[in-house]
């Protein structure tokens, strides 16, 4: 559903930037937070594996789940 010309003009006047710029900002913010979360999960899994409290199979499973989650999120946000 797209905005009408009146809605677009009202958004532009009220915010000072276009709706497209706002959409880009929010999508970028979501992807940056997702990448930070992925880095945190990977770092935590690696520390557990290095300390011996996480098996290599569980570490590989964490890597696979994080990559799959990131790919699905990027597919839906960037398409």
Automatic annotation (TrEMBL):
InterPro entries: DUF3262 (IPR021676). It holds the Pfam family DUF3262. The chain crosses the membrane at residues 25-46, 58-78. It comes from the Bacteria. Keywords: Membrane, Transmembrane, Transmembrane helix. NCBIfam families: conj_TIGR03758. This is Integrating conjugative element protein, PFL_4701 family. The lineage of its organism: Bacteria, Pseudomonadati, Pseudomonadota, Gammaproteobacteria, Pseudomonadales.
């Amino acid at each position: 559903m797209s905005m009408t010309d009146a809605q677009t003009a009202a958004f532009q006047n009220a915010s000072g930037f276009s709706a497209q710029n706002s959409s880009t900002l929010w999508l970028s913010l979501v992807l940056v937070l997702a990448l930070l979360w992925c880095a945190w999960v990977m770092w935590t899994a690696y520390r557990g594996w290095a300390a011996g409290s996480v098996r290599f199979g569980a570490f590989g499973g964490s890597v696979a789940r994080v990559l799959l989650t990131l790919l699905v999120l990027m597919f839906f946000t960037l398409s």
